[in-house]
Amino acid sequence: xxxxxxxxxxxxxxxxxxxxxxxxxxxxxxxxxxxxxxxxxxxxxxxxxxxxxxxxxxxxxxxxxxxxxxxxxxxxxxxxxxxxxxxxxxxxxxxxxxxxxxxxxxxxxxxxxxxxxxxxxxxxxxxxxxxxxxxxxxxxxxxxxxxxxxxxxxxxxxxxxxxxxxxxxxxxxxxxxxxxxxxxxxxxxxxxxxxxxxxxxxxxxxxxxxx
Length: 211
Description:
Blueprint: E1 4-11, E2 20-27, E3 34-38, H1 46-51, H2 54-60, E4 63-68, H3 92-101, E5 106-111, H4 115-124, E6 129-135, H5 145-149, E7 155-160, H6 167-174, E8 180-185, H7 192-195, H8 197-208
């Protein structure tokens, strides 16, 4: 396993009133082979990816990872974003973020609330997305089957077996993505990556290794 460096920073993103906080990880001894953007849900922040080891695991797998605190949340709590929480965010938000940090083409990991950010970007700028890993995201119903079918990006759809709120709805909508695989994490709820980090990391790294 390669040595890993984890640092903190901030980045100005189009449509935001102030810079957003982020954490990033990268291998020290080898050049990164993939860029990964980790988003988060309503009750969470980039710190969750640090605590459960996702930032470290991906960096050891040769990835340059950025975990951002979204507007109104975490250490970006005072930052006003381009849309209210829970509403679709213009695709230019993630485009600006990725361009500013040099992440494109990027693997996007998008749980829950962050679906409102990642889905417009995926639909409008699929060429900037290397792979998409939605984890029971919101707003999947906002797009048509035809819009999903136009996207050829490799996709790993993840949800928890006990997620009665979004699990089945997510699969029903996202299965229209042309190139997808579905993973159900057993005995896990909505934040399934927190309920079973070991299985989450195994499935995530197995998928990453195919890219």
